[in-house]
Amino acid sequence: MGKVLYVVRHGKASAKQPGEKDRDRMLDAVGLRQSKQLGLYLYNKNANISAIVCSPAKRALQTAEQLADQLDYNLAKIVCDEDLYEASVRIVLEKVQAFVDDWQEVVMVGHNPVLSYFVEYVTGFHFDGLEAGSAVRIDCKVEKWIDLAGKSTSFEQYISPLDL
Q1: How far apart are CA 29 and CA 16, in angstroms?
Q2: Which residues are bridge partners to 139 per DSSP?
Q3: In terms of Cα–Cα distance, which of 119, 142, 109, 107 is closest to 3?
Q4: Residues 144, 150, 152, 157: is their CA dihedral positive or negative?
Q5: Could you tell me which residues come within 8 angstroms of residue 40 by beta carbon, excluding any fewer than 6 positions away?
Q6: Residue 138 in 3-state DSSP?
Q7: Of 3, 17, 92, 97, which is the most exposed, with the fewest CB atoms less than 10 Å away?
Q8: pLDDT tens per residue across all 164 residues of the chain
Q9: Rounded distance between C-alpha atoms, residue 120 and residue 156, angstroms
Q10: CB neighbours of 118 closer than 8 A, spacing ≥ 6?
């Protein structure tokens, strides 16, 4: 059967204000719209999301919440993982490999450049990288997330905000 991983870069964020921590930056109006449209797109494609995992940065959590709202996914079930903020490719891979095996389709929301590097690492597919508010669908030919590796994955689709 296999699994599906949607790697999502948070929507466009507001500029960092003096004294503001990076992780406290919020989505701007464009980012809110991008996130809502991406959620609606996934809903219309009949995505059957088992879990939404995100960085605890406010802009990533807001993106996850907008997606969840469009997907009729329980907001209380969103998993914020501290390690996804300022993560390395190795950490992102370890987090994915530790997903619950009952999860068949997972959305992971985080930041660039690590998410783009992760996609290239696990799929071997070179692309221009994730822009704000975009997603990549990765099909994983595994029954258990721990078995996820390059030969078991394929880059299936890049979803740009311009496509929505």
Answers
A1: 15
A2: 4, 154
A3: 142
A4: positive
A5: 70, 164
A6: strand
A7: 17
A8: 699 999 999 999 999 899 999 999 999 999 999 999 999 999 999 999 999 999 999 999 999 999 999 999 999 999 999 999 999 999 999 999 999 999 999 999 999 999 999 999 999 999 999 999 999 999 999 999 999 976 789 999 999 999 88
A9: 12
A10: 7, 89, 92, 93
DSSP states along 60-116? HHHHHHHHHHHTT--GGG-EE-GGGTT--HHHHHHHHHTS-TT--EEEEEE-TTHHH
3-class SS of residue 121:
helix
| Per-residue three-class SS string for 16-47 | CCCCCCHHHCCECHHHHHHHHHHHHHHHHCCC
